[in-house]
Amino acid sequence: MNVIVSGAFDDIKSPDVRFLQEASKHGPVTVLLWTDSLFQKINGRAPKFPQQERKYFIENLRYVTEVHLINQLDSINTLPPEFLASGSIWVVRETEHHPEKERFAISHKITYLVIPTSQLAGFPNPIPSPQPNPTRKKVIVTGCYDWLHSGHIRFFEEASTYGDLYVGIGSDENIKDPERARSSNVSTGRAIIHGRFCKTRLPRFH
To answer: Do 150 and 57 meet the contact criterion of CB atoms below 8 Å apart?
Structure first.
């Protein structure tokens, strides 16, 4: 089954990643990402991050299979008809549930699924990382990643070209955001083999 989510994903945070993680449990996730002009129309202001940067970030999350920019919606309680297919599941957060969305799904013969806010609590382990390649070098990078953004994603991509990438993440002792939140975000990057915390020294890989 194809899972559809729709939204801006502007200044993405760990709750957004957790939502996509839960959505991916129901099938391959297609994100219908609002363009800058659609965001402006809906919210009355420009997004913090331009559409290509938002698209780049979302495309590099393991929980997402496809990303399509959409420039028009009849309302935020609908989806573009061209993306609807038999067996599709429209997944929304509890905070974004609306009866009109449910009616739209019923009328177009697709499943409507609401993810409860309580289900997004905590930071369960991410989906399994790719298996390390024994013929490749091991590459380690370290950092706080207190605010994960597209610059970090691009850095991870580039670093991964030198070998299997492992990320050491600063502990909460000197970082603002909780370490579980940062680990959850970082570990979802497609380029990363594994992410773990560094407290007093770097982890050893054999």
So the answer is: yes
The pLDDT mean for the chain works out to 85
Asked if 94 and 114 touch (Cβ cutoff 8 Å), the reply is yes
The three-point CA angle 135-137-140 to 5° equals 145
Q: Does residue 134 carry a pLDDT above 90?
A: no
Q: How confident is the model at residue 184 (pLDDT cuts 50, 70, 90)?
A: low
Per the model's pLDDT, the better-predicted residue between 180 and 162 turns out to be 162
184, containing H or E segment: helix 179-187
What CATH fold (topology level) applies to the domain 138-198? Rossmann fold (3.40.50)
If pLDDT is split at 50, 70 and 90, which confidence band does 131 have?
A: confident
Domain 3-120 indexed as CATH 3.40.50.620: yes
Map out the domains of the chain as residue ranges: 3-120, 138-198
pTM score, whole prediction:
0.77
Q: Say yes or no: do domains 3-120 and 138-198 share a fold.
A: yes
**188 touches 148 (CB < 8 A):** no
Nearest to 92 by CA among 67, 71, 72, 120: 120
- CA pair distance 19, 23, nearest whole angstrom: 6
